[in-house]
Each structure stands twice: as structure tokens, then as C-alpha cells.
Write a structure and sequence with these properties.
Layout (H helix, E strand, L loop, with lengths): L7 H7 L6 H13 L3 E2 L8 E2 L1 H11 L7 H10 L2 H4 L3 H16 L3 E4 L8 E10 L2 E8 L4 E7 L6 H15 L4 H11 L8 H8 L1 H4 L8 E4 L13 H12 L1 H13 L10 E5 L12 E5 L12 E11 L2 E7 L13 E4 L2 E9 L3 E7 H6 L10 E6 L18 E9 L5 E6 L13 E4 L2 E9 L2 E6 L1 H6 L10 E6 L1 H16 L1
Antiparallel strand pairs: 1-2, 3-7, 4-5, 5-6, 8-9, 10-11, 10-15, 11-14, 12-13, 12-15, 13-14, 16-17, 16-21, 17-20, 18-19, 18-21, 19-20
Helix pairs in contact: 4-6
């Protein structure tokens, strides 16, 4: 490949086209008039314009599968035993392999830690004056911070603070912890002097780290591309990639700002002058979202809403997922999303599907409140041969309810929900209720409030940890209770 302009004679001879040079020149003249190709200088052939490349990408090119040799290269180079334990190692290896396969510059942007949900914290005494803090986030990332101590602390103080922090902060984003740590862990609650030191250092401990978020490989690959034979072009690209803040901004703006309503919600392609950065306008930038995390249990996966398209009859949701449990989804299959039974209208092999939601469903569920990037619980329909776990869930929402309290605890977090008076006959202590598609046991009933005790596994592997007071949730009552109540009302009216 030379990236040189080509003329009509070259094309007819090279590709054995069944028409004359003159016919091809007329076609190329039409394409030039419409802006799909241009002539760099008077005696040159034609090259595609940004518009021409865009037409090719949107209307001609088809997405293919990786070649077997490329799949083997990925399997051979990524040490799954190691990468499942160290997310940063996995990302570095993935970036390097992507560069080797594509023969281009590849980069990966690690997730913003401030948006991550706190999983646990460990405090390790390095010396009498230094403490290592290890924060584990729910998407598998780990943040390590060293703080200096003005005075010696005991191991008892360290263990006491570790237990207190894990109890008070579970299920909360790092950004929220940073702003509310002094309220959640009041320094006067205990005589542990380490708590005050911790709170004073909280801005540093829970601050997001932009440095190191960008992993880049293959910058020397641009030297093999004929488009960059000119030294000034190469220099501009190298300088651009040295300024990682600019690259991070470019990637984030590309993924968040679609250039058309038809653009793929996962894979984004910016060609030439579609890139805001002038030094990148001789290149194409291809980005794709990835999702960290894995789920299992009764809720089979946590999905993410990547796009919402409204129309006159309702709306269409684009849902992405990470679990291989859903790779064999098919069109017309039923799927439960936050407890709402919907039908898959299109399935993409990039771990994404769409569902249509009609006005009737919108009027009875929390779907109108959903936004792009919201996490949702996913569950496939039960097959007759499947083992039954949990309770019967039809996916037919009975009502929505308001969350009044969320209390993250170490052993069993609590959620309090307000139930409508007319539905009180459908609930009993130790009975079942389905909230956001998660089948739960009612631990306690106080007037029209119910308490749900959530074990750590369910808290971690569903979106229940995302709930906050005043959030609205989908509710489905036990089907047997609904049948019994209906028959009882019929019996009463007959007598």
C-alpha cells in the first residue's frame, strides 16, 4: 500500500474492470463533484475525502470476525491466570496485542476511579510512621495510597478503623465518599485517633487519579504508514500522544458525543476533520467502550444502558452486557430488565441488544426515569428444564415504590421501601417480593414500610447497591399471593 493518488488507467488494469478508462474517469468526476474524492494537485490521481471515507464506513464496509491466527495470538499472549487477579496487567497486555494485530497506535483509557463503587478497604502498617491504604472498587480496580502518620498507632486502632470504614462506606462511589466522609464517619464517634488522620487525608485517598489512566502502545507503527513519510506529520502525532490529557479528553468526548442518531452506541469512528484536534485530522480515531465486572447468581448479569431513542409509540433501549451467559440471545426472546419483561428486537454480536418499550409499560414502571449509563439487572427467561432458584418472577410490574432508607452494612445491608396501602395484603414477613428484578425476602414490616436484608453477594452482584433514598423501584409481588387475594375478594363479595 502506497497511499498515493490513483488514476483511471491504473484502476482498470490493476483490477481487471470491465469498462473503459473513459467510463471510469466519468464516474470519478461524478464522485469528485459530490465531494467523495478529490485531486491533491493538477497532475495527480484522486484520493478519498473525509466524506468518501465516511460513506465507506457507514454504507459499504461490513464488520468481520477476527482471523483464527489473531484469536490464537490473543489467547497465547494474555495470561488469564494472572490478568484475572490484576486488572491493570490485563489492560496493558490488551493494549499491546491490539497494537500488534492492527499495526497501528493502540490505547486504552482505564475507568475513572471516582465513579467506581467502593467494595472494601484494607489498612496495612508499613512502619510506625507510614500506613498503606488499599481500596478495592467493584469493577476490579485497586487504588493504593500511602499516608504519613504523625504519631504511632496501634494494630487495634487499624483493625477498628478498617471494620468501621467497610461497614460505613460499602456500596458508595468514591466521589460521594470524598465529599461526605466526615458525615459518614464522624471523628468524634470514637477515641480512635487514626480516624481523624484518615478524614484529614480523605481528599488525597479518594481523589481520582488522571495520571496513568491512559495506556499507549505502538507509536512507532506510524513510521510504517506511507501517509506519514513527511517528518512534520510524524512529529505532530508524536507530540500529541505525549500530551495525555488531550488524548483522554478526545476519547471521552468521542464516546459521549455522537455525530449522528444512527451511530453505533459502542463503536465510534472519527475520520479526518471530524476530530477536534488539528494534529489528528490526518488520521482516523476508532474507539469502543468496554465494561468491567462480571455477575452470576439469580441475576445473571448487570447490563448498562448505552443509548435511548424515543419515538411516538414509546422508546428503544440499547443494552450492553459483559457475561458470556447472554451470547446466544436471539431476536424475539424475552428478557427481564430490572424486573420488567421485554422482548429483544435486535441482537448484536458485540454483547449488545435492543428492546422496544411501549407506552403502557412506560406508564407502570420506572423506565421513564432511566438514563444512559444506568446499570440494570438482567435475567433470562426460565426454561422448563432449568433448576428453579429464588421465586417465580413473571416480569409483569405491579407498581413502583419509593426507597426511604439504604443502610450498607458488613453482613446484611438494609433497604426500606414504602408500599402503597392497597398492596399491603400482598406482603407478609418472611414472604417474597421482587425489587428491580431481584427476588428478596421481606425481613420486617412496619406500617406501610418493608425492610429487606441484602446479603453481601446480592449487594455486590446486582444494582441494589446503586439505590439511594427517594429512588423509585419496580415492584412485583408474589404471584401466589396475588391469586389468593383475588380469590379471597371474590369469596367476600359473594357473601
Amino acid at each position: 500500500m502506497t497511499a498515493s493518488p490513483v488514476g483511471s488507467r491504473y484502476l482498470t488494469r490493476k483490477h481487471s474492470l470491465n469498462f473503459s478508462d473513459a467510463t471510469l474517469r466519468n464516474v470519478m468526476a461524478d464522485l469528485e463533484e459530490k465531494g467523495y474524492i478529490n485531486q491533491p494537485y493538477a497532475s495527480a490521481g484522486r484520493v478519498p475525502t473525509d466524506k468518501g471515507y465516511r460513506y465507506y464506513v457507514d454504507d459499504i464496509a461490513k464488520m468481520g470476525n477476527l482471523h483464527k491466527s489473531e484469536k490464537n495470538k490473543i489467547d497465547h499472549n494474555i495470561d488469564l491466570e494472572k490478568t484475572t487477579k490484576h486488572t491493570d496487567t490485563m489492560l496493558k497486555e490488551a493494549t499491546q496485542i491490539l497494537s500488534q494485530i492492527s499495526q497501528q497506535i493502540s490505547l486504552i483509557l482505564t475507568p475513572s476511579l471516582s465513579k467506581g463503587i467502593f467494595n472494601r478497604i484494607d489498612l496495612l502498617s508499613i512502619s510506625s510512621e507510614r500506613l498503606m491504604i488499599v481500596i478495592t472498587i467493584d469493577n476490579g480496580f485497586v487504588k493504593t495510597v500511602m499516608i504519613e502518620l504523625q504519631s504511632e498507632v496501634t494494630q487495634k486502632d487499624i483493625l477498628q478503623l478498617t471494620e468501621l470504614l467497610n461497614e460505613k462506606l460499602a456500596g458508595i462511589s468514591l466521589a460521594e465518599i470524598r465529599e461526605t466522609i466526615s458525615i459518614r464517619v464522624p471523628p468524634n464517634d470514637t477515641d480512635n485517633k487514626l480516624i481523624r488522620i484518615f478524614i484529614e487525608s480523605s481528599k488525597e485517598i479518594f481523589n481520582d487519579i488522571s495520571e496513568g489512566r491512559l495506556i499507549v502502545f505502538g507509536k512507532d507503527n506510524i513510521l510504517t504508514n506511507p501517509e506519514f513519510e513527511r517528518v512534520d506529520k510524524v512529529k505532530g502525532i508524536i507530540e500529541l500522544f505525549e500530551n495525555k490529557d488531550v488524548i483522554v479528553h478526545l476519547i471521552e468526548s468521542t464516546t459521549q458525543n455522537p455525530i449522528s442518531t444512527n451511530e453505533d452506541p459502542i463503536i465510534k469512528i472519527r475520520i479526518g476533520k471530524e476530530n477536534q484536534e488539528s494534529k489528528l485530522q490526518d488520521c482516523s480515531l476508532i474507539t469502543a467502550k468496554y465494561f468491567a465486572g462480571k455477575s452470576e447468581g439469580i441475576i445473571k448479569d448487570i447490563g448498562t444502558i448505552t443509548n435511548i431513542i424515543t419515538h411516538t409509540h414509546g422508546l428503544t433501549l440499547y443494552i450492553s452486557f459483559t457475561s458470556d451467559n447472554f451470547l446466544n440471545l436471539t431476536t424475539d426472546e424475552s428478557i427481564c430488565i430490572n424486573g420488567v419483561c421485554l422482548t429483544i428486537t435486535h441482537f448484536y454480536n458485540l454483547k449488545q441488544f435492543t428492546v422496544d418499550v411501549v407506552q403502557e409499560t412506560l406508564s407502570k414502571t420506572t423506565i421513564p426515569l432511566w438514563t444512559i449509563s444506568k446499570r440494570v439487572n438482567l435475567e433470562r427467561a426460565l426454561k422448563p428444564t432449568d433448576r428453579l432458584g429464588g421465586g417465580w418472577i413473571q416480569g409483569h410490574i405491579d407498581c413502583t415504590a419509593l426507597v426511604t432508607h439504604v443502610i450498607p452494612l458488613t453482613y446484611a445491608s438494609e433497604i426500606w421501601i414504602k408500599i402503597r396501602n392497597e398492596d399491603l395484603g400482598l406482603i407478609v414477613e418472611k414472604g417474597s417480593i421482587t425489587i428491580e428484578g431481584v427476588n428478596l425476602t421481606i425481613a420486617e414490616i412496619k406500617d406501610n414500610l418493608i425492610k429487606l436484608a441484602i446479603i453481601p453477594f446480592t449487594w455486590e452482584h446486582t444494582t441494589l447497591s446503586d439505590l439511594k433514598p427517594n429512588h423509585c423501584v419496580n415492584v412485583e409481588f408474589d404471584i401466589l399471593g396475588k391469586y389468593f387475594l383475588r380469590q379471597w375478594n371474590i369469596h367476600k363479595s359473594a357473601h
